Amino acid sequence: MIFTPDADAITHGIQLAVAPVFFLTAVSGMIGVVAGRLARIIDRARGLEERAMVSTDREFLQRANGELTTLRLRGRLANSCIALLTLCAVFIGLTIIVLFVGETTTFQSGRLAVTGFLAGVVSFLVALLCFLAETFIATRVLNFRMPGVG
């Protein structure tokens, strides 16, 4: 692997890396969204646990236990989503490095770059499926009725 300090090759390498950088921006935005949802899940679970500690109402305790089970599943899905998005970011980052090195040296990086990029896309798609499942579960338990009203 010989480094060629050719300005044109370096410029072209940077141009090749721009598209994956935009993908990294989308991934980081998704991580922020999912982390926010995870924080709300944790806050809700802590609040329910605190109320359950002092409650003697059996009906409330059963409902709280059911909701905590659902929150646990949602938390696991959100954690999985964040892990997959982080893995995606790692793959895309490695793709950027491989593209740049391949462009500025004699290293043949084509297959490795394609593999890294596709692995990143697959990780992103699976993360989106986890996010979709978490949002379905979150909206399934919504109940917009006032207690005691028809």
Gist of the model:
The protein is an all-alpha fold and 150 residues long.
Major beta sheet, specifics?
none
User: In angstroms, what separates the terminal alpha carbons?
Assistant: 75 Å
Portion of residues in helices? over 70%
User: Looking at the chains present, what oligomeric state does this protein adopt?
Assistant: single chain
Beta percentage is: under 5%
How many domains, as an integer? 1
Mean pLDDT: 87
Overall geometry comes to rod-shaped
The computed structural class is mainly alpha
Radius of gyration: 23 Å
Counting H and I runs of at least 4 residues, what is the number of helices?
A: 3
* Order of SSEs: HHH
Poorly predicted regions: none
Task: Give me the count of strands.
Answer: 0
Question: Keywords for this structure?
Answer:
single chain, 150 residues, mainly alpha, 3 helices, 84% helix, rod-shaped
What would you say this structure looks like, in words?
The protein is mainly alpha-helical and 150 residues long. The chain is 84% helix and 0% strand. It has helices at residues 7-54, 58-104, 110-140. Helix 1 packs antiparallel against helix 2 and helix 2 runs antiparallel to helix 3 (110-140).
Which helices and strands, and how do they pair?
Layout: H1 7-54, H2 58-104, H3 110-140
Helix pairs in contact: 1-2, 2-3
